[in-house]
């Protein structure tokens, strides 16, 4: 999976990191999400899909 975040659009709301904290983190300096790990297990990939579906801006891409 090629996971990416459109950082110009991210508002740092924290939804993605609440859903999968092992995959998404918060860049404290920028106030935006960062990708810690793109996810490998089935469970992680399911959580990534949930984060994509719940991002209010729709700025997570795979
Ligand atoms: S859910 Fe979307 S807008 Fe919110 S922090 Fe994550 S990537 Fe940014």
Tell me what the structure shows.
- This protein has 62 residues and is of the alpha+beta class.
- The protein contains two helices and four strands.
- It has one domain (4-61): Alpha-Beta Plaits.
- Helix content is 29%, strand content 19%.
- Strands 1-4 form a two-stranded antiparallel sheet. It has a two-stranded antiparallel ribbon with strand order 2-3.
- The mean pLDDT is 95.
- Bound molecules: iron/sulfur cluster.
- Iron/sulfur cluster is lined by residues 5, 10-16, 33, 55-57, 59-60.
N-C termini distance: 6 Å
User: Regarding CATH, which class?
Assistant: Alpha Beta
What structural class is derived from the secondary structure elements?
A: alpha+beta
Helix-strand sequence: EHEEHE
Shape estimate: globular
What is the residue-averaged pLDDT? 95
């Amino acid at each position: 999976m090629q996971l990416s975040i459109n950082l110009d659009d991210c508002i740092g709301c924290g939804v993605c990191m609440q859903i999968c904290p092992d995959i998404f983190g918060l860049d404290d300096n920028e106030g935006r999400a960062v990708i810690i790990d793109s996810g490998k297990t089935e469970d992680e990939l399911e959580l990534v899909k949930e984060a994509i579906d719940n991002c209010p801006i729709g700025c997570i891409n795979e």
